[in-house]
Fold each of these.
Amino acid sequence: MKNRLTPVSILEEFFHMQLKKKTIEFFQEISSDKWVDFSKFYLFRMKEGFKKEHFLSSNSEGHLRLYFEPKLYDQYTSIIEKQYTPTPLLGERPHPPHDRKISSGEISKMLNPLKKHLLFSNSIYIRDNFYYCFDMVADSVNSQDWRNNPTHVYLVERSINSVINWLPILCEIRTLIDTGSIVFMPYYFTPSFPYSGYSPSVKKSWNRIFYEKGSETTESEEIYDSYGNRKPAYYFKSSGIGEPYFSEEVIKMTWLNSRILNLSPVYPTKNMLNYASKLRFTEDLAPRVNIADFTSINILPFGNEQEISIRDLIKIRNNEEVFKEVAKSIIALKNMIEKENLSATSDETRRLYCKGYLQEQLSILEQKSIIKFVRNPITGISLSFMVGSMLLTSNPLISLFAGTASSAIPSVADKLLMNKKQKAIGHIQMLL
């Protein structure tokens, strides 16, 4: 496994101790001064190596890397509060519960907002909320005399408490962190940092953004404050009932940050995604395809009867080649549910639809192993026919492929591909 720069790796590097459930007591006994030193070491290591590892290498070519924009964390938090258990992994509140021991089941629930995205993306980039708990200590507290400043004493004590409470969470999801499935990204690497909207640091790129006008998917409306003054940014009203207004400027900056970082942004709502899908650089021939929003993925009826476990996620992602097929199938299922206008139907209806579709695909794969021979009595040429279709072709109908009799047996490559697809279907069926 590749050595990655992660919260876990930096902890272990600094303290020379592996992070495991049974070693958490070791970390609990570490002195406050040592934790202050750790915070500054963490900041140094991330600034030194994170950008090089994630944005200056070509290892991610062809990978889907989803990006949760720090500027939209209030929007993510609003959705999480309505649909999930509050989580320090994503949203405005980075501090874990401090009044009790966090159980494995509770940590699994904390990951729920991200689980379905982990079924089809290679990596998910979230703000490093672990570091966010002690960033003031790392950046502002003097290692030598912090005890002489009451404000710094408070910051250090609160930060240490949060770091200790983070350790069980890091232990539970460590495999997902170690493999790069979940990436803790320091907020200061956001290209537009520290601005919440337009940033002078990306002025040249900002001036290249073009909005492709056409049939609007949102209702435009000017917003005024309580004094009757128009708000500085142009706001759009989402067409969905109960959905919030959103700023054109913030969505543009989210799009620009992700474009500069070569990541795929996850917009909080479908309407924000629709607006962003019309953005492009002036030199682009067409807008880039935006693949994800935070909420519509919930039309996939996975984990409703039984929660998707962290163990399930790790098992599914364990084989990279099989996971590729899982990801393709997940995206295809989502697209088909939307195409068949099943988004508003019950979970059970969508679950039955998915089960039926997957069973049909499994049957098609099994039929591919049946080869019929037709011997031409005149030429003596044998013809072999294989019935089936690839799992995720644009037209999922049974296709007929004919070939010469140079070999009536599927190639090793064909067998391996069929095996991967069958395993992928098995993994998805397990979630329904």
Amino acid sequence: MRRRSDGVRHVRGATRWAVAGSAVSAIVLGLGYAHALPHVPSLTAHHGSDGGGSDGTGTGVQPPTLPGGGAAHTTTGGS
């Protein structure tokens, strides 16, 4: 019976290490991917540079800037 309880204790310890390692790996990979992606809102502290008012009503979304600073203009293939 002692061998069995020692084996169970060993498996239990190995399982805890595997779960802890998996959790840490998931966090590290998630933070790495979140840092690498452009234009993704940060989940960390708010920096106050979202273009909104002091009451916190800003959405943080900025319209895209166009080359030349002009309005968007589309043309068709017609002659």
Amino acid sequence: MSGEAAYQRFFPTPSREAQPIARVPGVLAILLLSLPIYMQVFQYLKDIRAVWAFAKISPLLLLPVTVFGLVFLKLPYRALWLLLMIYLLLVGPMLSMLYVDASFLEAAGSTVKIWAFAFYFTAGATFLMLRVSEEKLSRALMILAVTNFATLWILWIVMPDSTYVTDITLTGMFLWDQERGPRIMLPLVFGLLGLVWMARSFSVRPSIWQPALIVLCFTLMFVIYKQRTVIGFSLLMVLWAATGEIRRRLPLFFWAGCALAAAGFIALVPFLSELLGSSVRDSLGGSLTVREESGRLLTAFLEQRPERWLFGMGGTTEFNTIQLPDFFRKRDFFLADLGWLGTIGEYGLVGSVLIAACYACTLREAARAASLARTPFRLALQDLTMVLILVTAFYSVTYTPGQIATVMAIVIYLQSLPIPPPPPARPGVVRPAPHRHGLVPRPVAGRG
């Protein structure tokens, strides 16, 4: 029996017709355990070493599931994803050995952070093997969103002041600095999904509880989380999501309002600049200056030889004998703080273009999944993808690549499910026939 035939025997191709999905015991529990791993919630949780170590090696532990998804599933963009991983796994280590004098083991260790790109195949295989329904998947993600913010609040209450440190190499969560004071850098990817989800729900069916919860969540982020870039882009996307129905029904009114607001802001810029002076720049606590200096050093190094712009210089880990801060003689030099410039520095323009293509394809498929059924959940996945793209302007795209890979798997899987009945169309509205593909097994030769 061939491999594909064996797969068809145990996981037959689901029908395109709307029908109940076979139940697998414990689906919700498995999703609640696996999704945080795929989304790399524990990837930098150094404070709990066992959990941190498990998160680092989880792509290896889940390799059989990954191979299963790669070999047996009819996944779109499989060639792009494989090309990206081959490039990152081979070129990056070679360059780190060349430029940073890393040993073979040190160079291989620098690839750990990009293993999670493979979670595209892992998560896709998980969803299909479990026969997850959209309702079950959305319920799991909502539970994780609530848990995300609840954990942030509980940690803020129970952790003593002595927990917070100024050295980022000693902790993954509990930081203290002079400008912002104590803060908890808990990964909030599920919480951000919950925020735009509530905003989309408010857009469709307004109620007092959605804005009340959104304000509460942003209050926790401002008081405890304090990651300005993430908060700013999240607030922008929440406003965008909350006005979704207005944009659809009154586009002229919406864009005219945006134009007036933009014109008013531009008119106030000279007054605000004179009033605030350098206080805005000073409030960044030197982080902008650090990024500017690091960017200048990296750019100067890349400009020495053209091929460095094309292929980068590789990366290091905290276990390398010579690390990038040592190489550039700057203690607070981190490629992860330089956004796309840091990605170019590590993987070159070639690797950056491949990664950008994966992000663009994810946004395209998230929009396609939302077009098939404009539910708040699917629209929120599209908004979350946009947030993940926006933050790459300041944070490395390889910091937590499992997030974009998992979102891609989710939106592709949703396209394979029966389409929910659409709401009645307004008079004069013609619904286009949807284009869809899905996360289904490859067809077996000889089957009808």
Amino acid sequence: MMNVDKKKIFSLLSSVSPTVQRCGECGAQARSRIYFYLLVVSLIATMLPHPLLNILSSLAVLISVAAWAIASVMRRSQWPVVALLVAASITSGCAGPIFDKTAVPLDLLGAGDQVKLGTVEGVGVFGLGLDQVTAEHAIEKVGIKKPIAMLNVRGYGLISMAKVQVYGE
């Protein structure tokens, strides 16, 4: 039989296998991909019309950006996608209430000149801060005793806006 030294076998195998440094680079690339996909999915989820989902996905955006920054693994090719999604999320949260000019025609309400209009508007960041923009606050604001119609326009994104209008007597 051949006399083979274990150290020689180990050195031959280690010479053809990836080095520790190269495996570390592979791990950084994998982490970069995970952070990137978490950020993309979270930014898309911030635009879905559900308040709790907006808060949770906004927190996921903050966590993934922090982890990405700490790990310093963001590639230059990923910046445009992230910037586009951040812009889309902010636009989706603000565009609806800013550009909505819907109004309830007063003659359809059937109350004539006695119609009062209560309006409440608000801005929220990361899904928080819009809890005071409700129909109840609009009713209390102008002293409406009998609500007739309500208009509720909300946007969802990293920065969200909401507008509630209540018509009544």
